[in-house]
Design a protein that fits this description.
heterodimer, A: 419 residues, alpha+beta, globular, B: 185 residues, mainly alpha, 10 helices, 64% helix, extended
Chain lengths: 419, 185
């Protein structure tokens, strides 16, 4: 059996092999000979490339029969960076009219079979519920003509999978750097449009953080359109923007939102706190072996300092069995939970010492079991199902945390109720 | 754990060599599975398009993957999975990936023959693995190097090549932008 050369392989196998390549590598193959020069124009190849890269997340074929696979590839190549959780920054509310003035802290992008949807995620306001309210925010997909488009949804009861309807504002969803997103009303995103024009001026106060500084740099570096056609287009878009009442909204990526085996507490969590309302928390590991937990999206406060909910310099767990005193500390507490029917005593597999304040407390100087120490000291108890609860020595309850999302799926989501 | 009593089947290569394998290993090939299921009591299956060298490699692949699947299944039934463990890539997955990577470290001719065999025998995992390996041989090469790899005569003029390159310039720009993302990630 003589070894075949590449060109002697069946056509569908050649496409199969080439589907693993990137566009520039396809270009290089196209440059080898006349035989391969039509390659970049071959729809079946782009289709295979889309399937190869994103087939496990979405169904590229159903993104629209009129959509060129080549354009789809370009769009998905950029839009795949949206997937995951984002945190709203800046003062920009959804609408300048204040109709949707509630500042939902979290934005969650996920794949659907024929589009990408971004939803605002906020805690359910029903007391004692772990539910999260998911309301449609942004829709990215293809128009019936096959153009790549992105829309901002204003009404909360629209199905996110259905195509654009009447209360949709075309927006451009663009990246200012890989972890910084801007959603602004400006006409739909066109995959062939290299020059993304931008509404001048952002309504935010003085920037306290690096992300907003990046933002200013991005806008400052944009060149104004100098052609007359460009100026007219710019003015039309300004009018559209003002009509819709929307302003540019900025988001920063939450890079680590799920726990990992080496960082079991890392990520986004939700818990019912002492006043029975649900809150979101973000736990981050630092480079020196410590952990910090912060609330996500405190309304009003743009960046509520850096005061943590709890922190610890040492992320090494203490394994069960624990000392008698520790068991007493745990079992003497009340779990704040939603329903009264809930859990019998949760099995604690590991625990951690935590502090609730960055104020320096030196145990030896505080003198024995100093009162100061008990004020800030607390515990994290990790349960055998991977969730955990925490509490402080100064009170006697435990806040149990659950995952907000697992395996790319939002948990316990409820539909937005009509306001 | 061969609960099925280890029923064996004989596969015969195009050059007449016979390979006796457990039926469950042979059934990794959809083609062979159909033959076994459609025609009962088939003891020896001739494979006219696959020679002994390639067939022995294919059988090696199937044996390894069947064993790995059985090991994973027995592990899952004896252990309680936790939510955290659900997102873990089990060590055995990593081992299998390493084994696969070693498996495709063969010369171009053998690789292409393996691709053809995987296609003919309809073994999806092997087809994807070998096609990816072939693509990896193309990655990073210049047009000239790819031409050599494909055994193509150079029949294209530099001007024509330049024109194709220009037409596809956008592809190179996309690459740059995606790499910028990777640098931050």
């Amino acid at each position: 059996m003589a070894s075949p050369s590449f060109t002697e392989l069946p056509d569908d196998i050649q496409v199969n092999i080439l589907s693993f390549l990137t566009p520039s590598e396809i270009s290089a193959v196209a440059c080898t000979s006349h035989r391969f020069s039509p390659l970049p124009g071959l729809p079946s190849l782009w289709h295979a490339m889309c399937d190869r890269r994103w087939g496990q997340f979405t169904s590229p074929a159903s993104w629209g029969p009129n959509c060129t696979s080549r354009h789809l590839y370009r769009a998905l190549d950029q839009w795949e960076n949206l997937i995951g959780f984002w945190r709203r920054i800046g003062h920009g509310h959804g609408s300048a009219t204040g109709a949707h003035a509630t500042c939902h802290p979290l934005l969650f992008f996920k794949w659907n079979s024929n589009c990408i949807t971004g939803s605002q995620v906020s805690p359910c306001t029903e007391p004692g519920s772990y539910g999260v309210v998911k309301s449609p925010f942004v829709w990215l997909g293809t128009s019936p003509d096959g153009e790549m488009v992105s829309y901002r949804q204003l009404e909360e009861d629209l199905e996110s999978e259905v195509g654009p309807g009447s209360d949709l504002v075309p927006v451009s969803v663009s990246f200012v750097g890989p972890n910084h997103l801007v959603v602004e009303p400006n006409g739909g995103f066109r995959s062939g449009d290299e020059d993304m024009e931008v509404a001048m001026g952002i309504e935010s106060g003085s920037p306290p953080d690096r992300a907003t500084l990046e933002m200013y740099q991005y806008f400052a570096n944009r060149t104004s359109p100098c052609s007359e056609k460009g100026v007219r287009r710019q003015r039309r878009r300004e009018r559209e923007r003002r009509k819709s009442g929307l302003v540019a909204e900025h988001f920063v990526r939450i890079t680590h939102y799920c726990p990992t085996p080496t960082r079991p507490l890392e990520g986004l969590w939700k818990g019912i706190c002492e006043n029975r309302s649900l809150e979101f928390y973000l736990v981050a590991y630092d480079d020196v072996g410590g952990i910090t937990c912060r609330r996500v999206g405190e309304p009003g406060a743009q960046f509520s300092g850096y005061s943590p909910l709890f922190w610890t310099p040492n992320a090494d767990f203490i394994e069960a069995p624990f000392s008698k005193e520790e068991y007493k500390i745990y079992t003497s507490r009340e779990h704040i939970t939603g329903d009264s029917s809930s859990l019998e005593e949760r099995l604690v597999s590991r625990m951690l010492f935590i502090n609730s304040s960055y104020d320096l407390v030196i145990p030896d100087l505080a003198g024995g079991s100093g009162g100061n120490l008990r004020n800030v000291e607390g515990r994290v108890w990790e349960y055998d199902d991977g969730t955990f609860g925490f509490g402080f020595l100064r009170n006697d309850f435990i806040i149990d945390l659950k995952h907000i999302a697992l395996n790319g799926q939002l948990l316990d989501s409820v539909a937005a109720s009509r306001m | 754990m061969a609960d099925n009593g280890g029923k064996k089947i004989t596969l015969k290569s195009s050059d007449g060599e016979e390979f006796e394998v457990p039926e469950v290993v042979a059934m990794e090939s959809q083609t062979i599975r159909h033959v076994i299921e459609d025609v009962c009591a088939k003891n020896s299956i001739p494979l006219l398009n696959v020679n002994s060298k390639i067939l022995s490699k294919v059988i090696e692949y199937c044996k390894k993957h069947v064993a790995a699947a059985e090991a994973a299944a027995s592990k899952a039934s004896t252990e309680e999975g936790t939510a955290a463990a659900a997102s873990v890539t089990k060590p055995s997955d990593e081992d299998l990936k390493t084994w696969d990577a070693e498996f495709v470290k063969v010369d171009k001719g053998t690789l292409f023959n393996l691709i053809l065999a995987a296609n003919y025998l309809h073994i999806p995992g092997l087809l994807d693995l070998t096609c990816q390996a072939a693509a990896d041989m193309i990655k990073g090469k210049s047009a000239k190097e790819i031409r050599k790899f494909f055994n193509l005569k150079n029949c294209i003029s530099p001007e024509e090549e330049e024109e194709i390159r220009r037409e596809n310039q956008w592809a190179f720009e996309e690459e740059k932008r995606t790499r910028a993302f990777d640098a931050y990630a």
